[in-house]
Amino acid sequence: MKRLLILGAGTGGTIMAQHLRKELDKGKWNITVVDERTDHYYQPGFLFLPFDQYKPEDIVKPITDFIPKGVDFVNSRIENILPEEHKVILADGNALEYDILIVATGSEISPEEIEGMKGKEWGESVFTFYTFEGAKALRDKLRNWKGGRLVVHITEMPIKCPVAPLEFVFLADSFFKEKNMREKVDITYVTPLSGAFTKPKATAALEYLLKEKNIRIEPDFAIESVDNEAKTIIDYGGKIIPFDLLVTVPTNKGSDVIEKSGMGDELNFIPTDKGTLQSKKYPDVFVIGDATNVPTSKAGSVVHFEAEILAENILSYIKGQKMTEEFDGHANCFIETGGGKALLIDFNYDHEPVTGTFPIAGLGPLRLLKESRFNHLGKLAFKWVYWNMLLKGRPIPFVTARMNVAGKDYN
Prior knowledge:
Elements: E1 2-7, H1 11-23, E2 29-35, E3 39-41, E4 60-62, E5 71-75, E6 78-82, E7 87-90, E8 95-97, E9 100-103, E10 107-109, E11 126-127, H2 132-144, E12 148-154, H3 164-178, E13 185-190, H4 200-212, E14 216-218, E15 223-227, E16 232-235, E17 240-242, E18 245-249, E19 252-254, H5 256-261, E20 285-287, H6 300-318, E21 331-338, E22 341-347, E23 355-360, E24 364-368, H7 373-390, E25 408-409
Parallel strand pairs: 1-2, 1-9, 2-5, 9-20, 11-18, 12-13, 12-18, 13-14
Antiparallel strand pairs: 3-4, 6-7, 7-8, 10-19, 15-16, 16-17, 21-22, 23-24, 23-25
Helix pairs in contact: 1-6
């Protein structure tokens, strides 16, 4: 019996288990998923939790609800990966050997990377919504906050879901308007980028919205430290920004076990072929989602698209055939803009977000890079799609793994 081992039962690991259990001969291949957690989080919901738009129970379900029949689930911490020996060591010392390994261990926040970030104000006036517990704590803070200087800050790129901090400031604008206290809140968006986003056309559209909503942007801010006494953030150029409430996105890094295994780069992301999603160093190791270093967004949609490509490539690898499927970096993201509206962006390695229609060229019904109520409804509907289709490996009608360039306005 051959052994296919998947590390991580998040979005990528779960979808790969679903795809490959359907494709691989049950009499020849044993599939095992390993994860130390027992809960699966709908991570896009972390954005809505601080504003009381979702309840905690809306975004948490047992991992075992999504592990397909015929796949073994091992609930254990991963102690180490030994790629030269083709085995994984678990916390209890037991080893799992593999013929093929899929690494889907995701990324984690590391606030300790910045001096003072996890100081005495952590959980008092310094928060993050990039974890379930952090989003809940921020919700409790916002329920009774009386206003002041709200600073929303990105430490460095890459981060999981790069548009989420922008969505947070837009939703904060709406949240305080609905509480009739917008005039009491000064909102500043602080980013290490030179603009609101990584792509020029999307940056122009998003900076227009920031200005319209009276949200100041502070670009090119490379944070050095957080001063807990003065309640300021300081960058390497000496720039100082005061805050009464700091909502920060700390450094994102790959799992600690990737560093321990020696498989990762300086941020613990695994060097991965951006087309085939095969490890650049170990032919029997494949990587998906946030664990890779491929140059595209670390977003849930990317994992979904990668999974379809990777499943085909693993089947080719097993047959000893050339892997011909190429991931094109496709990302598709809703951006909540507040007031019941949202933008939608669609891009890949070669094409930046532009206007047009999605998913059907010329028909839509969703509009790209344009605010609309329909896009907002699409974002809300995605939660149902996630739990009921995406995690179960079911295709989403009209949505393709590779970016469809038809229906886009490139001029």
